[in-house]
Amino acid sequence: MTKHIAFVGLGAMGSAMSANLLRAGFTVAGYDMNRRAVEALGAQGGVAAESAAAAAREADVLILMVVNTAQARAVLFEQGALDALPAGGAVCLMATCPPDEVRALAREVTAQSKVFVDCPVSGGVAGARAASLTILVAAPLGDLEGLRAVFEAMGKRIFHVGTEAGQGASVKAINQVLCGVHIAAAAEALALGERAGLDPEIVLEILSGSAAGSWMLSDRGPRMLQDTPEVTSAIDIFVKDLGIALETGRAAKMGLPLASIAMQLFLAESAAGGGRDDDSQVIRAYRRLNGL
Amino acid sequence: MTKHIAFVGLGAMGSAMSANLLRAGFTVAGYDMNRRAVEALGAQGGVAAESAAAAAREADVLILMVVNTAQARAVLFEQGALDALPAGGAVCLMATCPPDEVRALAREVTAQSKVFVDCPVSGGVAGARAASLTILVAAPLGDLEGLRAVFEAMGKRIFHVGTEAGQGASVKAINQVLCGVHIAAAAEALALGERAGLDPEIVLEILSGSAAGSWMLSDRGPRMLQDTPEVTSAIDIFVKDLGIALETGRAAKMGLPLASIAMQLFLAESAAGGGRDDDSQVIRAYRRLNGL
Prior knowledge:
2 copies of one chain form a homodimer.
Chain A: E1 4-8, H1 12-23, E2 27-31, H2 35-43, E3 47-48, H3 52-56, E4 61-64, H4 69-78, H5 81-84, E5 90-93, H6 99-110, E6 115-118, E7 121-122, H7 124-129, E8 133-138, H8 141-154, E9 155-162, H9 167-195, H10 200-208, H11 215-224, H12 235-252, H13 257-274, H14 283-289
Parallel strand pairs in A: 1-2, 1-4, 2-3, 4-5, 5-6, 8-9
Antiparallel strand pairs in A: 7-8
Helix pairs in contact in A: 9-11, 9-12, 9-13, 9-14, 10-11, 12-13
């Protein structure tokens, strides 16, 4: 039975996920370069570890909720977390990473007699806080079953998407193709409404309730009509995630024309200085492009 | 009070809409080049008119549910329906047409002392049958109010999108930007899943229930996984509607990069012989493009 969890990467999502693991009765030793986040976990009943290796030392499972595979490699190899993890322990990579990098990492981890589970998540900070994440698990079924209680403490929809590392990352990349294209498409449609001199609130109401609707239109659309909306997810997150999606296409040899166009719009908005603004503001790229 | 309606264009949608008008207590004189559709309306209690002009002769309202403005012009001018319509009668153009063509038509109709109402619909054949269409009305508010009972007999959501002809057509074009891009994006995502060797049913289930979801993904996605699905709306409808969307952008001077890419994919599928197949089959363009 999994009892002891090491959790590395205590950002907005990781902090919420580790808190949910504590609430579910697991012991959680947490580590992050941000000392304040580590201490916050300690104050909630977790172990505030001094290093990634220290967190991993008595763990059954090492969860990585870091930014990318470069950080995952640094934690596992340079900072010694993989060596510290007891034999037979499982490394769960929950970050959004390119499938081929995940496959390479899996080979190196399993070569050292540790289990590797490719299990990225969808649902953002809100889903992390509500323990309602979608978790995309690619691993032998036995490994998933052994970890099911861990996943269920953090998420609501646990999918077994395949048995091989990289397949979870692939599904996440496909998910982000649609998320990114849908945000950019909403911006394209609402900007056309502005150009046509229509009332943007009425246009948004019509589109949201018709066959033109999408989850992203309903969520991001209202913020596209605001000048400086709250940041729920930044432009640069989609520069990263659509970059991973396009890299997934390149590695699998698959042209992704819509995703590549959407990427250019997020990139342009980042280039113009909006990288840390809410991703709904990709509409500004359309406004600049067309002199609105 | 509007009592007598002339209805020209008794295709799948027009037949259902005129039947709903009969059910609501209006008298309806219908005309179509397809004599069988006219007789079907007669059998339901409507007047099977011998010509468009004959249908319009005693009407308060002339509804045009034809394919495009060329057909609308033929009905109004060549076939004499506008002259036949009593003075003060209203021409309601409910087809999907380019805004600048709608504006031009409105000028010619109002120059002959008739009312023109730009009022395209969204909701397809299913919405037409269920009297649940979304109707996008651009006209002076008084004209809309005078026709409200007519619209409510056919639709559920009646929007006053502006006072000038062409604004309804613009909103419809914007709606179709999103519908077309969302169908193509769903195909791009599901085809990438196929390329990555993932289970397409699981991928679709994950995407449909996440932030990647759209109305079109839920509706068209399952048919993308079928070889010869039922045709609910054809590829060539989107060749037409995205063509109108791009023409709307050109006329308003607005670049629509995502819509233009989506258009090329529907066009390619039509070019390959799939024009009359279900629009979900735009996924075949992705498969061919990438040798799947």
